[in-house]
Amino acid sequence: MNTADHVLDRLLAQGQDDPYPLYAELRGTAPVHFSPQLGSYVLTRFEDCAYVMKNPALFPAPDPASFASFMPEHSTYDAFRVLVNSIVNANPPQHTRLRRLVSRAFTARRVESLKAGVLTIAGDHVDKVAARSADGAVLDFHDELSVPVPLQVMARLLGLPLENDRLLAGLIPRIINVVDPSSDTAALKDADDALHTLLDLLWELVEQRRAQPADDLVSALVALESDRGVAAADRLTEDELKAVFVALLTAGFETSATAIDIAVHTLLTRPEHRPGLRSYAGALRFVDEVLRWDAPAPMSAGFRYAAEEAVFGEHVVPAGSPVRVLLGAANRDAAANVDPDRFDPARKAPRTLVFGGGVHHCLGMNLARMEIAAVLMAIADRLPGLRFAEEPVRRRSLPLRDFASFKVRLEG
């Protein structure tokens, strides 16, 4: 076993509490290497990772048929087909067309118009945490706050009743299981059941908005699908509309919830930064540094492949090879950020790949930052006594820095 394999084994086995020394070891000893465990080349330096993410012609995502060849049983299910055919996995020119259309509906103005509602949603849930733990009760922060806030925000954006957040929280992880290689037949069938339940819910809303449009994202997307007065290239098909809805709900939910957990974990371990959260601008600076310093998704969920031989310094990636980028390592590369292991919300323009790059740059970036900032501001203002009830426990998962347990209580 070479050095890189050994480091990755340690990372997968026990490195989730603090993987950053192991990331640094990989950057120094094997910044570009083939991993038998992951079946792909792994990149760890900032510039190398950015180059892959910003050059989709040289490093395209696998087409649906290639995805299906890796998981042939999974590919027979509707949930699999919807996920792999979404904008998240598309390449130009299909991606260019879909992103152009979706961007017309998912505008900066629409996101900014949600700010007051997001602040209210975050404040309401923080108040619920305060009420439920007033007698010293121990609560799971992830379940009580990190999950419902982004789901209620997405429900508000789409125009769904806010009480649907718990239903969405149950459906989305079940759908995502269809692209988990370890899922058995029962889990795959359950993923399809969850998908059909979700689409039934959404399509009821679609039909309502076709008859009576409102100022929400569903109405805007339906208009792109139903406008027969424009060329076909300027319309979404019904299947594309379904895929867009599912992508919006699945692509950012888990990472947003995990990012809220990490941001609050960072605040509770560094309470000296609480005064900086009194303003929205200060909270956004804290959020941006958290996302750089401890990325919620430290490794790309999917992989790209090298369309031709690629050279990264002295390292060669053969044509046709799968490639994955280790974002958690890249964001702490000293070549990108000075003193990268220091947490500093006052850092000027932190360089990060947490929201992707190039044509695949995350459409929901500003909405996610808004959600996390809103939660931090509400906690700083209303829950000065929030403390860990016990040491949080990370899951042993490389793609996501989530928690198996995040218990909190109020003191004082």
From TrEMBL:
Q: Does the keyword Secreted apply?
A: no
Question: What Pfam families has UniProt attached to this entry?
Answer: p450
InterPro entries, alphabetized: Cyt_P450, Cyt_P450_B, Cyt_P450_CS, Cyt_P450_sf
* UniProt keyword terms in alphabetical order: Heme, Iron, Metal-binding, Monooxygenase, Oxidoreductase
Q: Which GO terms describe its molecular function?
A: heme binding; iron ion binding; monooxygenase activity; oxidoreductase activity, acting on paired donors, with incorporation or reduction of molecular oxygen
Q: Does the keyword Metal-binding apply?
A: yes
On the tree of life, the source organism's domain of life is Bacteria
**Which family is annotated?**
Belongs to the cytochrome P450 family.
Q: What is this protein called?
A: Cytochrome P450
**According to the entry, what is the taxonomic lineage of the organism?**
Bacteria, Bacillati, Actinomycetota, Actinomycetes, Kitasatosporales
